[in-house]
From TrEMBL, chain A:
The chain crosses the membrane at residues 6-23, 83-106. It comes from the Eukaryota. Keywords: Membrane, Protein transport, Transmembrane, Transmembrane helix, Transport. This is KLLA0C07744p.
From TrEMBL, chain B:
GO terms for cellular component: COPII-coated ER to Golgi transport vesicle; endoplasmic reticulum membrane; endoplasmic reticulum-Golgi intermediate compartment; Golgi membrane. It is found in: Endoplasmic reticulum membrane; Golgi apparatus membrane. The chain crosses the membrane at residues 149-166, 178-200, 220-240, 247-267, 287-304. It holds the Pfam family YIF1. Keywords: Endoplasmic reticulum, Golgi apparatus, Membrane, Protein transport, Transmembrane, Transmembrane helix, Transport. One of its GO terms (biological process) is protein transport. This is Protein YIF1. It is a multi-pass membrane protein. It comes from Kluyveromyces lactis (strain ATCC 8585 / CBS 2359 / DSM 70799 / NBRC 1267 / NRRL Y-1140 / WM37) (Yeast).
Amino acid sequence: MIFGLGRLFYVVLLLINSIAVLSEERFLRRKTTTHHYLPVGLGSQSNQAVFGQQENTTKSKLVQLIGAVQTLLRKIVRNINNLYWWQFRFIMMLVVLLITIIKQLFKVSINVLSTS
Amino acid sequence: MSYNPYYSEIGSDSNVGMAAAGKGKNISATGKQYGMQQPSLGPQTPQQQQQQNGSYLPSASTNMAFQFGQTAFNQFVGQENISQFQETMSKATGATNSSVAHYFQVSNSYVFHKFKLITVPFLQKNWQRIPDSSNSFQPPRIDVNSPDLYIPVMGLVTYILAWNVTQGLNGSFDPENLYFKLSSTLAFFLLDLIILRLGLYLLVSNTTSPVTSLVELTCYVGYKFVPLIFSMFFPASFIWLNRLAKLYLFVAFGVFLLRSIKFNLFADMGNSADFSFKKGTVKKVNYFLFVYGFFWQSVLMWLMG
């Protein structure tokens, strides 16, 4: 199989990352100061409703979603940056170990079930 | 955990209903933990965040942005889902309407009728679900149009086993294929669910309809195992018979999906006078469901099968 859960994880991670790195000033805002880039008009400042009211168009939902992803990822990245390097490496090692163990457990259990 | 003198009062206030249900201290404690994550706590939320973060003191604009983001994220995931999960945990044994157990109340005749509905959806006239007395819907064993989780779960297992049996009949059985097929099927399933949820989130605004909740969308997405399994009955040696059968089954499934989602999405909107749907929204949702139900589902099932 080419497409599995691991690939889906990569796909989702890269897509979320691509949303997070969209630059508001260069790309998303409708009127850009620099005209080298294509303005799309999806910035949070460009068409925000009065504070407290929520617009319900598709475009405003998209703007909200992009803003939500960006703010949440900024918070996560800030927390990761606060770690020391050895704490970060330790956590990453644990994660990799856990994934490997789960994979092996799946394979072993399926082999045992199919041979018995 | 934050140490806020106002906090316990708010937590206990919001859990009066649950404590009155006679569940004791445990549930109210978990309710407090869940209540911390909800953004609708009012003026106390900035204080909490400051105390949680300790040394990091956010400015007012950061706070506002974070709340804004959290609200939008909760809207995307569905705020009812969190509270639904809470209720499910508390009433895991009882077969109440809001729990997942509601979607497992099936009978034999329901399952046969549902198979008939998926394979021959052109005969069905009425697609709307039967409402309950308490502002919800009847369980699947009474109502054929109600979605259930029994067929998707059983379909997933059956589909993986049947696919491996066909591999075995070809003489190329490998026990690792069980694992790979499960992984790939779940990945396609999740991808499908994400696309459907994202489309409905962007197009439909603030519906009170339960169709947009993740549990019911899981049901609708999971019904595609039925045509996938049925298409395996046709032998691959008669190649044109196989293709025709697959084409018919995919078209029938598209019709089923389109009608069963569409008629229930805008069903309860006509009653409430203050909430009127624009015609443009309905049109857009119809286009999206058409493309999703026919083209994307066919491509997906062709990739899977």
